[in-house]
Amino acid sequence: MVTVLLILGFLATSLASYFVSRTSLRKEIERNTLPLTSDNIYSEIQRDLFRPIFISSLMASDTFLRDWVLQGERDPRQLTRYLKEIQNKYGTFTSFFVSEKTRTYYQSEGILKKVHPDEERDRWYFRVRTMANDHEINVDPDLANKDALTIFINYKVYDYTGNYIGAAGVGLTVNAVKDLIETYQQRYGRDIYFIDQAGNITLKSASFAVRAERLEDIPGLTEKAGEIIAADSLTLNYQRDGQMIHLNTRFIKEFGWHLLVEQAEDETLATVYHALLINLSICALITGVVLLITHRALSVYQQRLETMALTDKLTGALNRQSLEAFFEQASAESRRTKEPLSLVLFDLDYFKKVNDSFGHQAGDVVLRKVAARVKESIRESDLFFRWGGEEFLVLLRDCSRENALKVAETIRKNIQAPPLHFEGKEIQMTASFGVTEYAPKEEMDVLIKRVDAALYAAKDRGRNCSVCA
């Protein structure tokens, strides 16, 4: 019962602590850690990805570019040097300008081509010239760089009176942006990816675990995809591949994309789970130690109880209640081994006179000293009992009646001499003995009656002698 209570108690407290910690950790992830990480990543995106927007904006308002166009685009080499300088100074992958008047596509390496509305690859320009916003971000192959997939920032250019005169901008390779995402992911330990307003996954890191092209194709997000796309920001969690995933979203209006930052719960909870295992191990150790101490304490206590139950407190001899159990054991052993078993019963002569003459305290001292002399006179295998007030009984294993008589005489002589003393006063003590041998299958009551009769015969003979029944 102690074991069960300890185990259940420790298990309950450990599991309660684990679940409370897990709940607190989930709330911390949802309310603080993940939104804060998302804000940090958003800030870094502003720094790393909004920079090209800022550069494109500078190009669109640059007086050199507008003056060069308004002066009739006379020397293309001037614009080429300008675009080259932009590209080198700001570390962009490409820089460009498309003239509305001549439909010429200028690039940092020179004139690339003429754009045409019927050309599939030129439709971006004709979309830009009619769009409501001043700029857009789109992902297209870059003709000037072997069709490398590039993120273009297309910015409208106006003259000084507000007339549209072309589109300028810069481009970053998708791989360069992916490298930025990888950097964020390694720094913050989160999965990071982008989706557009249609739910398409536009950018993700190479190590992103889910192989999907659309948000609704990610297990666990199928029913939540519409909610994510419709919200400017959102924090939620979902189950994927058997583990809890926490997700924070944020709409980046400049890109028209949603930033999604995910954190798997398992890695974060690993520390809490490890702490649970440590707690359970400590609890198991404490339980073992407590049980060991309890077992030993109970064993000692039980032994003391048994001793108190079987032993006479005054003399240290076994008490009368224990005789039956010991007799059954000794008699069974005698029948099995065919070895004799004998009984000696003796009574202190005129013990009442000791109490009357010297007091009950003296009587107790006499009983203790007599018991000590008896123990010195018998073997360790022999059993010594206090039968009554001043009556004692000795059970002798592997001892015949004749040898038992000799033992009785030894005890009698040791009791008689030397005299006992109490508070400087000499007390002469003698005892009368009855001796008998156990007969196979004999009942204990019959044996006691026989040895008791022998004791009374010794008293009739004048006391201080031994009689064999």
Question: What's the gist of this structure?
Answer:
By secondary structure, this protein is an alpha+beta fold. It has 13 helices and 18 strands.
Structure commentary:
With 469 residues, the chain is α+β, with helices and mostly antiparallel strands. Helix content is 49%, strand content 25%. The chain has helices at residues 2-48, 50-60, 63-70, 76-90, 123-128, 174-188, 225-230, 265-310, 323-337, 351-358, 360-377, 401-416, 444-460; strands spanning 94-99, 104-107, 110-114, 135-142, 148-158, 164-173, 191-196, 201-204, 233-240, 243-252, 257-264, 341-348, 383-386, 391-397, 420-422, 425-427, 431-437, 466-468. The strands form 4 sheets. The protein has a 6-stranded antiparallel β-sheet. Strands 8-7-11-10-9 form a 5-stranded antiparallel β-sheet. A 5-stranded mixed β-sheet has the order 13-14-12-17-18, sandwiched between helices. The radius of gyration is 53 Å and the shape is rod-shaped. It starts with a helix and ends with a strand. The model has no long low-confidence stretch (mean pLDDT 86).
